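Form 7-S
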Amino acid sequence: MLIALSEEGLAHFRVLFHDKSSAETLEEKNNIPLKKRYRCILEPIGKAQNTLARIQTQLPYVINSSVLANVP
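Output:
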């Protein structure tokens, strides 16, 4: 979620999101200075509690693999 604190900020991010979504190639998408980051919340279910406990001992747990965009 992104909350703009001013009209200028809103206009800036509107342009970035528009440019990112209208880029036709992966190279064009990478040249736009808008990077997405994701946060995950883990909730143990059943046998997953042991796995969750193991991951929590290794926090911060960072996945460094790239996510490739689907370019039509």
